[in-house]
Amino acid sequence: MREQFRNHQTQTTCWDHPKMTELYQSLADLNNVRFSAYRTAMKLRRLQKALCLDLLSMQTACEVFEQHTLKQNEQLLDISQLVACLTSLYQRLEQSHSHLVNVQLSVDMCLNWLLNVYDTGRTGKIRTLSFKTGIISLCKAHLEDKYRFLFRQVASATGFCDQRRLGLLLHDSIQIPRQLGEVASFGGSNIEPSVRSCFQFANNKPELEAAMFLDWMRLEPQSMVWLPVLHRVAAAETAKHQAKCNICKECPIIGFRYRSLKHFNYDICQSCFFSGRVAKGHKMQYPMVEYCTPTTSGEDVRDFAKVLKNKFRTKRYFAKHPRMGYLPVQTILEGDNMETWGSHTNTHTHTHIHTNTDKRHK
């Protein structure tokens, strides 16, 4: 069974390591980010760094999985097995990042997180698939390499996946934002609409091949959009844009840069954009383009042409033609698309996202 931690000052016990409690408390600082996909991704990025998983390559993770013969994905792993596997992971990381990795603390915290995500019943066990899903989702790897790995875990020996197996993967994936209290923004805990969406995309074939799954994931389905956004957040962290924020006047803009496709020379930094601040004359429903890396001359020309076109469009046009930056999932009961970015804001400010996250790490 899972061990509880005792606070000797308050004489109380809890399931979380004291450092984990501090980390969760620090995530509250990000609750002012209005768009839930970005709010969730920024929380996960902080979690990823605290667990040192941003240092873990997929190759190293796979070698450790192999070392511990984690092949039966529906097999349950107990605490001792999880600790043994995590210890191997972090000992590998310590060899190349000794100044960053405290093996014992990292094992304790990662175990704490995995159990919070996948062992809500406090049984002291989680499935092998759950363990792999959690580790790979937050490791350092190309986004599509993560998709390929996760698909292989639920595919048959012939390389195809049926609806039940896809459901297992999506269920384990959605537990990651659920643990942060963000699951409602990604369609809720019911994964059936997402499974149905994927197989409808594959022309309702009885089984799904990897290429079709990848094509569906590239559309950023609502239940999984937090993962590519996490990659964009990581890519944008050190980006420096030679532009000035029209609201707070920050120059250069560090992080995400949001450029208006309605007004010339109108840029917003990520802090102002995430808090919903706008300058006079600019509406939230106007289209914006997001950059997590500095723009190229070709992108500048393309955006200039779009601004010219949008100059002749009215506010009514943008209100009547909202666009989403993700693939919405439709439920059977409600019949309406559930919103990803949060009901208190417009979705189509995220319509145009120009970044090749497949080539980004973390």
From TrEMBL:
Residues 240-296 form the ZZ-type domain. InterPro entries: EF-hand-dom_pair, EF-hand_dom_typ1, EF-hand_dom_typ2, KCMF1/Dystrophin, WW_dom, Znf_ZZ, Znf_ZZ_sf. Residues 343-362 are annotated as: Disordered. Pfam families: EF-hand_2, EF-hand_3, ZZ. One of its GO terms (cellular component) is sarcolemma. It is a peripheral membrane protein. CDD domains: ZZ_dystrophin. GO terms for molecular function: zinc ion binding. Coiled coil: none annotated. It is found in: Cell membrane, Sarcolemma; Postsynaptic cell membrane. Residues 1-20 form the WW domain. This is Dystrophin. One of its GO terms (biological process) is skeletal muscle tissue development. It comes from Poecilia formosa (Amazon molly). Keywords: Cell membrane, Membrane, Metal-binding, Postsynaptic cell membrane, Synapse, Zinc, Zinc-finger.
